[in-house]
Write a structure and sequence with these properties.
- This protein is an alpha+beta fold.
- Among the domains are: 94 residues; 118 residues; 113 residues, Immunoglobulin-like (Sandwich).
- It has a 4-stranded mixed β-sheet, with no helix packed on it. A 4-stranded antiparallel β-sheet has the order 3-2-5-6, with helices on one face.
- Helix 6 packs antiparallel against helix 7 and helix 13 packs antiparallel against helix 14.
- The chain is rod-shaped and about 185 Å long.
- The termini are far apart.
Length: 524
C-alpha cells in the first residue's frame, strides 16, 4: 500500500483565487503625461502614439504628414491649397486631443518618463514651426520668381512688338502695360517692381520709336497713346516719363502737318489743329503761321506757272482751311486770319490766269465759267475787261471750235459795217469773236414766226426780206478778217444756238439774219 510518508493528503479550505487580468491595469491619471503625448503628436510625427505603442495611429500621422509634403513641396507661387492646410491642421489637433486622452491613464514605454517626454514634445514643436518658416521663405522666393517671369515675358512682348506697326502691336502693348500696372499696384515691394523703372523706360522708347526714326506721321498715334499711360499707372512709377511724349508729339504734329502742306496732303490742317489746341504754347506751335505763309506764297507763285488752275484751287483750299484753323484755335493775334485772307484774295486774282490757261487748252466751257466768275467778283481788276471778252469767245468756241484758236484782245471797232437783224419771235443774244470780240442783244420780232422746214427748202428762201416788217436790228463795225457769230435765244427758250462764219472784206456791207426753224439758224 502506497501513500504519503506524511500520511494522507489534506486539501485547503476557502474561496477560489480571481483570474489573471488580460492587460496591465490603468495607470493613475497623469496630466503631465497626457500633455507630453499631445505635444509629441503635434510635431506631426506621431511620436506620442509611439510612446503609447499605438503603431497604427502613428502610421496615420506619418501618412498625413507625407501627403502634405507631397502637396507642398516643391514650393510654388500658388502655395498650398487652403483645404490641404485645414485638413492637416485638423489631423494634428485630433491626434493631440486623442493622444492626451490616451496618455492620461496609459504608462509610457520605457525608458521614457513623463518629464522627459514633455521636454522632447516641446523641442519637437520646432519641427512644424521650422517647416512652416522654411516653406514661407520658399513660397516667397517662388512668388518672386513668378513675378520676375511675368516681367520678363512682358518685356519680351514689348521688344517683339517694336518690329510691328503700332496698329498691329497696340493690343500687345496694352497687355504688357497691364502686367506693369499689376506689379506696381499689388507687388510694389517685389524684386520685379524694383525693375519696373527700366522696363517702363524701354516701353516708352519702343512705343515711340517712330519719332526717333523721324517718321513723324507714324509717330503721332503711338505718342498719343503714351500720353494716356499716366491715367492708369501710379505716378511715382513714371516720374519724368509722364511728360516724355509731350514735346515729341508736338514736334510730330508740326512736322507731319508741314510735310502734308508741302506735298498737297489732305489732313495737314487736322495735324496743325491738334497741335494748336493741345500744345498752344509749344515751340512747334509758333512755327505754324510761318509754314502757312510760306504755303500761300508758293501757291501765289505757282499761279504764274504751267498749272495756274491747280494753284488757284490750292489757294482756295488754303483760304478755307486756314480760316477754319483760325476759328478753332483762337488765333489771338489774328495771324492765321490774315494768311487766310491773303490766300482768298490771291485765289480770286488768280482766276484770270486759270481762265486763260483753260482757254488755251481748249476747255472752253470751263474757261467761260471761270472768266464770268472772275469778272463778276473783281470789279476793279485791270484784267476784268479782257476776261469778259475771253468769256464771250469761249462761249462762241463751244459752237465753233475754230473761233478759239486765238486768245481775244480788248480791241474794238473796224471799217466794215455788219447789220444783224432778228427774224425770230425770240429775244436773242449775238456773240461774235475774231479780230474783235463782243456781244449784244436783240428783241424778238413781234410779227415774226418760226419757219417750217419746208419753207427753208423753197428755192429763193430769204429770211429778213419782208420790207413791210420792222425787224429788230443793230449795226456794228468790224475789221476785215474772219469773224465767228453765234445767235442764241434768251428767256429759257429750248431753241438751239445758231452760228455763222463770216469772212469780212473791205468795200462790202454785210447783214446777219437770225431766224427760227425747227432748230435755231442764221444766214447772211
Amino acid at each position: 500500500m502506497s501513500g504519503s510518508p506524511y500520511g494522507p493528503s489534506q486539501g485547503f479550505a476557502g474561496p477560489p483565487l480571481p483570474p489573471m487580468p488580460s492587460s496591465p491595469p490603468p495607470a493613475p491619471p497623469d496630466a503631465w503625461r497626457a500633455t507630453a503625448v499631445a505635444l509629441l503628436n503635434l510635431s506631426g510625427l506621431g511620436l506620442g502614439y509611439a510612446l503609447l505603442r499605438r503603431w497604427v495611429l502613428m502610421a496615420l500621422c506619418w501618412t498625413a504628414t507625407a501627403v502634405l509634403l507631397l502637396v507642398a513641396v516643391p514650393a510654388d507661387a500658388d502655395g498650398v491649397p487652403g483645404a490641404a492646410l485645414a485638413g492637416y491642421a485638423a489631423v494634428l489637433l485630433l491626434a493631440a486631443l486623442h493622444g492626451a486622452l490616451a496618455g492620461l491613464r496609459t504608462r509610457l514605454a520605457r525608458p521614457a518618463g513623463a518629464p522627459l517626454a514633455l521636454l522632447l514634445g516641446v523641442l519637437l514643436l520646432a519641427v512644424p514651426a521650422g517647416g512652416a518658416l522654411w516653406y514661407r521663405n520658399a513660397h516667397h522666393e517662388a512668388v518672386e520668381q513668378a513675378l520676375l517671369d511675368r516681367l520678363d515675358k512682358a518685356d519680351h512682348l514689348v521688344a517683339t512688338s517694336g518690329h510691328k506697326s503700332f496698329t498691329a502691336a497696340e493690343s500687345d502693348y496694352r497687355s504688357a502695360l497691364e502686367v506693369y500696372r499689376d506689379l506696381a499696384e499689388h507687388h510694389s515691394g517685389s524684386r520685379a517692381a524694383r525693375r519696373l523703372p527700366d522696363s517702363l523706360h524701354t516701353y516708352y522708347t519702343t512705343v515711340g520709336a517712330a519719332y526717333g526714326h523721324q517718321e513723324y506721321c507714324d509717330a503721332i498715334e503711338p505718342l498719343k497713346y503714351l500720353r494716356t499711360v499716366p491715367d492708369t499707372m501710379p505716378k511715382d512709377q513714371l516720374g519724368s516719363l509722364a511728360r516724355w511724349p509731350d514735346d515729341r508729339l508736338a514736334a510730330s504734329l508740326y512736322e507731319c502737318g508741314a510735310q502734308g502742306l508741302t506735298a498737297g496732303g489732305t489732313d495737314w490742317d487736322t495735324r496743325f489743329g491738334d497741335l494748336l489746341n493741345t500744345f498752344p504754347r509749344s515751340a512747334a506751335a509758333t512755327k505754324v503761321p510761318t509754314a502757312l505763309d510760306a504755303a500761300v506764297q508758293r501757291a501765289e507763285k505757282a499761279v504764274g506757272g504751267s498749272q495756274p488752275c491747280a494753284a488757284v484751287a490750292q489757294l482756295r483750299d488754303l483760304d478755307t482751311r486756314i480760316g477754319g484753323l483760325s476759328k478753332s484755335s483762337g488765333d489771338a493775334d489774328g495771324t492765321l486770319a490774315k494768311a487766310a485772307g491773303r490766300a482768298g484774295r490771291s485765289g480770286d486774282a488768280g482766276e484770270y490766269a486759270c481762265g486763260v490757261d483753260q482757254y488755251k487748252d481748249g476747255d472752253f466751257e470751263a474757261a467761260q465759267k471761270t472768266m464770268e466768275q472772275f469778272a463778276a467778283g473783281n470789279g476793279n481788276d485791270e484784267n476784268r475787261a479782257r476776261a469778259k471778252k475771253i468769256a464771250i469767245a469761249a462761249e462762241v468756241a463751244q459752237t465753233l471750235p475754230k473761233a478759239g484758236k486765238n486768245l481775244p484782245t480788248t480791241a474794238s471797232g473796224g471799217s466794215i459795217s455788219v447789220t444783224v437783224k432778228n427774224d425770230s419771235p425770240h429775244d436773242i443774244t449775238v456773240l461774235y469773236t475774231g479780230p474783235v470780240t463782243g456781244s449784244f442783244t436783240l428783241k424778238g420780232c413781234g410779227d415774226c414766226k418760226a419757219y417750217t422746214l419746208a419753207d427753208t427748202l423753197v428755192t429763193g428762201f430769204k429770211p429778213c426780206s419782208d420790207s413791210g416788217r420792222n425787224y429788230p436790228q443793230r449795226t456794228i463795225s468790224l475789221p476785215a478778217g474772219t469773224t465767228y457769230f453765234v445767235h442764241k435765244p434768251n428767256g429759257g427758250s429750248t431753241a438751239s444756238p445758231a452760228s455763222d462764219t463770216a469772212k469780212l472784206r473791205p468795200g462790202y456791207i454785210y447783214t446777219e439774219c437770225a431766224y427760227t426753224t425747227q432748230t435755231f439758224g442764221s444766214g447772211i
